[in-house]
Amino acid sequence: MNEDFDEAEWRERVREFRAEKDDFFGSHDQSPIPPEDREGFDGLDYFDPDPEFRVTAKYSAVTDTESVELETTQGPPAEYTRAAVLGFDLDGDHYTLTAFHVEGEDTLFVPFTDATNDDATYDRGRYLDVDPADADDGDPIALDFNLAYNPFCAYSDNFACAVPPSDNHVPVAVEAGERNYA
């Protein structure tokens, strides 16, 4: 991503992130894993960390921060505020994803689909939380697909989750982050 990138440190951060998530899913009362399945839970399935899926995105602030409704897996649509468009290169092609502001959150919500859905990853798409770090229009920010995760509805029908909008589709296989839950 840049010359200051320390791959060993990055790999350790990804490992720690995954370990904390697995611990939460296996033991916390608010885990989406059904209580009867938590005792035998030994962690989620992830793609191996791959620095090729940690890209630099150009942050383009949205001038019209309109609210949009995203379809949900069940129930009424959910309302989100468009915050930015993130432009990035992956496998030699350029793509964009819309990032949304969620009230009360510092990170931006980026729901997306890619060519792994229905096969290696959850069929309705995955999510990223992106730290804009006070980014201004045109600034570079990190977009790390190794931190892509499944929505809670991938683990239990008790949750209604936002479905990524059709324009948040990356037409290549993003083999990074969480895989399907078995």
TrEMBL record:
Region (Disordered) location: 24-45
What the entry lists under Gene3D superfamilies is as follows: 6.10.250.1680
Q: Name one Pfam family in it.
A: DUF1684
Q: Which PANTHER family match?
A: DUF1684 DOMAIN-CONTAINING PROTEIN (PTHR41913)
Name the record gives this protein: DUF1684 domain-containing protein
Species assigned in the record: Halobacterium jilantaiense
